[in-house]
Amino acid sequence: MIVFILGLLLFFVPHITPLLVPGVKTSLISRLGEKRWKGVYSLLSLLGLVLIVLGWRQYREVAPIVYDPPAWGRHATMLLVWISLILFSVPRSKPGKIMVTVKHPMIVGTIYWTVGHLLANGDLASLLLFGSFLLFAVISRMKEKFAGDPNPEFVSYRSDVIAVGAGTAIYMVILLFGHVWLSGVALF
């Protein structure tokens, strides 16, 4: 469990601190320089993700059950994850209807991804993992909402076609073998 918690901290502290402590990111960039800041931020995030995956796989086997997910939870998860992968794939340039409607597709996609997984998993390891990502995404979305959402103007459906195509392709790879490789949990 220590590896898992360390991974969560290494990933989320650099992500959440700039949201909760105004000016910390600017201060660090001025001290370290933008390239070094991005390097440290990326390295901590990547290391955190690796430790999260390794730690979650170890801890999940012994984690206590916190709640019983609903019987329909797995089916809902399949739909929510597919939608989230489409949202993760939305190009920022030349906004389509998805970008215009959702405004923050990565944040909203993270919310769908986490809610889906919380509907399918009731163990403490999953609750900590997906609950952490959900909390982070909700805080991020609230901050963006209070800061004033962007109002992208529709340019082309091309971005929507790319998002649906890429998101669906990634979804199929995850369904067929990516999920078991990454998490150790077979979907079928």
Detailed description of the structure:
With 188 residues, the protein is mostly helical. It has 2 domains: 1-62; 65-188. It is 76% helix and 0% strand. The protein is built from 8 helices and no strands. The protein has helices at residues 2-20, 24-32, 34-60, 73-88, 97-102, 105-120, 124-147, 158-183. Helix 2 crosses helix 3. It is globular, with a radius of gyration of 18 Å. The two termini are 27 Å apart. The model has no long low-confidence stretch (mean pLDDT 92).
Output the structural class: mainly alpha
Shape: globular
Q: Domains counted in the coordinates: how many?
A: 2
Radius of gyration: 18 Å
Secondary-structure element order, as H and E? HHHHHHHH
Distance between the termini: 27 Å
What kind of sheet is the major sheet?
none
- Given the structure, what is the number of helices? 8
What is the averaged pLDDT score?
92
Strand content: under 5%
Instruction: Please give the share of residues in helix.
Output: over 70%
Q: Residue ranges: pLDDT <50 for 5 or more in a row?
A: none
Record field, number of beta strands: 0
Chain-wise SSE layout:
Blueprint: H1 2-20, H2 24-32, H3 34-60, H4 73-88, H5 97-102, H6 105-120, H7 124-147, H8 158-183
Helix pairs in contact: 1-3, 1-7, 2-3, 3-7, 4-6, 4-8, 6-7
